[in-house]
Amino acid sequence: MKKSSMNKALKILSLTIFIIVVLFILMRSAGYRPMKYPADVANSMHPTISPGDIWLCRIKRGYAPKDLKQGMVIIFSKKDLDFLLTKRIIALENQTVEVKGRAAFVDGEEIAEPYTAYSGGNPSGMNRPRGTSTIEPMKVPPGKLFVMGDNRDNSVDSRDPEFGFVDVKDIVGQPILTLWARDKSRIGRRIR
Q1: Sheet of strand 134-139, all strands in order from the earlier edge strand to the far edge
Q2: Is a pLDDT exceeding 70 seen at residue 140?
Q3: pLDDT tens digits, residue range 46-55?
Q4: Looking at the annotation, which residues are catalytic?
Q5: What is d(CA 128, CA 123) in angstroms, rounded to the nearest whole number?
Q6: Ranges of H-type helices in the chain
Q7: Exposure pattern of 83-118 as b/e (b: 16+ CB <10 Å)?
Q8: How far is CA 164 from CA 2, 17, 90, 114, 145, in A?
Q9: Higher-confidence residue: 157 or 125?
Q10: Sign of torsion, CA 182 188 189 192?
Q11: How many H helices and E strands in the chain?
């Protein structure tokens, strides 16, 4: 390779690295950062999110109930766990939630859930048959959320009384975009 070609290649490489570093700094200062969904966790959010996925997340402390929407995927902490969890909001504070088999109802209306999957699994400790749940109508307390994983057979979530509701103050962020996944067709896809 000629010296002038090599110098041009080094300049392009240097500029590319500089741009990546600047973008990374800007993203972090704006509250965005990449996060990896742990590869050793259950597939509770599959097919929306799978173990090993890397996403771009909006990190924000201090969510107010008005910031949250039904169907939103959130990242949150849970007492006695040393890792973050990811689930989907099914019902917000002061809403009434009910689950009958594979159908979820909020304020008496069945909600459309095109993102759900049923794998035939049953996480240990869950006192419900595979693919089914029955939750009698219950009102979500103020400052709390009722959440479920998208892979309903493989998710420990608000249907389990021991897991219970999620406290709004425990939300740390929201996954926005899949940056990397084993299934290459999901790369660049918004997480909804």
Answers
A1: 109-110, 103-106, 96-100, 134-139
A2: yes
A3: 888 888 899 9
A4: 44, 87
A5: 10
A6: 3-29
A7: ebbbbbbbbbbeeebbbeeeebbbeeeeeeeeebbe
A8: 66, 46, 13, 24, 9
A9: 157
A10: positive
A11: 1, 11
Give 84-88 contacts, CB < 8 A, sequence gap 24+: 84/172, 86/37, 86/44, 86/45, 86/49, 86/175, 87/44, 87/45, 87/147, 87/148, 87/149, 87/155, 87/157, 87/158, 87/166, 88/45, 88/48, 88/115, 88/147, 88/148, 88/149, 88/150
Structure tokens at 154: 């493989």
- Token digits for 118? 């049923």
Q: Which residues pair with 59 in a beta bridge?
A: 173
CB 89 within 8 A of CB 69: yes
Res 41: pLDDT: 65
User: Pseudo-torsion of CA 108, 104, 76, 127, nearest 10°?
Assistant: 120
